Amino acid sequence: MIDDKTPNYNFLKPNLANYQEDDVPRIAQSISMIDAVLGAPASTTNRGLVSLATEAEATSGTDAAKAMTPVTTTILYRNSLRAAVEAASGGKVTVLFDDQGNPSYMRRFSPVTNKELYRHYFASDAAWNASVFKAIEGQAHPAFLKNGKMIKELLVGQYLASNINNRACSIPGANPWNVTAYNTALLACKNKGAGWIMGTAHIWGFLQALCLRQKFQPRGNSNYGMNDENPLERGIRADGRSAIINIDPGITKAGTGPASWNHDGTESGVADLVGNIWEWGTLMKLMDGKIMMPPDNDIDLPEADWPDTGARYDSTGGTSDGANVTNGGTPVISDEITKYTGVPGGASGGVNAGIIGAAGFRSLTKKSDYSIPAVIVQAGLAPVTLVGGSYETDNALKGAIWVQNYGEVYPLFGGSWYAWSERASSPGLGALRFFPRTCGWSVTTILGHRPAFLLV
């Protein structure tokens, strides 16, 4: 049976079925409609405003003192939209505004400890006590740390980024922004104002661990608008075609799939983590296979200062100098690289080491005598099985992995709509691949990103 259940707060969302990314007036019109539905006076429109007001809002005059008496119609719309979304989601989702006043629907998360996220992977106290997590069990997951200090909240875009005046905005029903250049995606988030960032490896690792902890892995658009496991689960394609028509591109509008495509299986969940379009990640890159990454969400740390974690992606294929490689084999986590899948320092000309299919990522192996740092698992770059944990049979992490261990490349997570043969089962929370800063081949319809915000 097709899941056509109407979300319990759809009437609060802007009607963006025909939304164009630069059509800001239509957004204002939609928010005005919400005001009419609510009938909310100005004195009730500031819920959540004080604790979550962004720097840009404060600068524009939307501070605590003025929230009770909005000075312009625009401010009233902003506050009404936020109040409506927070009320409908029970406070799980809020709306933040960037330097241009563009809205973004954001899912709120409070700090979670490593023990809360990872203890269930270990069968006994003895196994847990011997794990790399034991020494940091009481610490917050790195997604909730900024340069060693715990933040108040992490806010993740509920929807994939759409483009409004070159700003990455999380808006329901919008067309996801296809971005082939890492820098474009990064700046579209950072330019929104202080606290904004593109989704990081640490954030992805947290969402991955959270979903498995709650024993729920979302499905998604893995086959031209439908899910390959359950073809009756479908979203609304951005090109207006039916999901049964295999004509490129098969992207679906943000958040238009069923609740089973959201991270927690509810209408308030983070949508489209699995499939639809690969999501660029930041605060992590590979330099000739070396994993360069800060220990937490230190979003102010210049890329040139990202430290070497000591971990590498080696390969069972490739050659010692990366020349004339035709088969990259499979990736291996190690502290050294014995085989490159392309010439070190180059951005192209080689191949990937990969493991396709739903079991790809969790089948990743490591050098036999190498102890993987906890942060590599916390960032979603290695399965918990490589640090002594185990997945439940009915809750094993899904997704494929492809690694380019030559040149400078950046991570992408989750998979895409583009599926064929055995690759139809490759999207998932464990799906991981790497591309250069600017992609040199035709991937214009499978790459995107998601904004996030750190409330310090």
Number of helices: 10
Sheet with the most strands, sense and barrel status: 9 strands, mixed
The gross shape turns out to be: globular
Helix content: 10-25%
Low-confidence stretches: 1-77
Quickly list its features.
20 strands, alpha+beta, 456 residues, 10 helices, 9-stranded mixed β-sheet, globular, 5-stranded antiparallel β-sheet, disordered N terminus
Structure description:
- The protein has helices at 24-38, 49-52, 55-59, 64-67, 73-88, 114-118, 125-129, 182-190, 201-213, 374-378, and strands spanning 93-97, 103-109, 145-146, 149-150, 153-157, 161-164, 167-170, 196-198, 278-280, 285-287, 290-292, 308-315, 331-334, 353-355, 365-366, 401-403, 408-413, 432-436, 447-448, 451-455.
- The chain is an alpha+beta fold and 456 residues long.
- It has a domain at 279-445.
- The strands form 5 sheets. Strands 9, 10, 11, 12, 13, 15, 17, 18 and 19 form a 9-stranded mixed beta sheet that branches. It has a 5-stranded antiparallel beta sheet with strand order 1-2-5-20-8. Strands 3-4 form a two-stranded antiparallel sheet.
- Residues 1-77 have low confidence and may be disordered.
